[in-house]
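Example record used in the benchmark description.
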Amino acid sequence: MAAQQGNWRNVSDLEMLQILKDEIIRIGIEDYPSKTKFNELYDSNNVPGASTYLYRFKKTWVEIIEMIGLEYDQTSMRRSIGKLNKGKQFKSKWNVVQKKEIFNMVKDFMNENEITTKAEYDEYRKKLNKQNTLPSTSTVLNKFGKWKDISGKIKNNQDWE
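Model output (structure tokens):
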């Protein structure tokens, strides 16, 4: 059951949780239901995003996942998929790529697809199946700051210092 996009107030808590569980199963992440993976793969036209659930239920993602009957043990999940690095910070593949190179990749992608907003970036990244070749919006924001500053530099054809 999909509510009108962006309007989930009239959907009961129970229905919301069922929608989340069904979507997690549909996109095949029930064994590792990370918030990041969910946000990358969910159907944003028919399902609320993770932030909607966090705001509505006032709980952590782990608590929400447990509410729908799935397990979410981050340590064992990361260990089983090889991402546990003996107590050190988890490494992203984007940590080894030069900041300027990341900016140029994002800039080229945004210019080629006439993208200006964060939502459009996410949408086209998913639609064109670029999740493995382009950084997520979270990574872009962590590297460069506010989206308006990033898109402003791109719009003005500026390089990143």
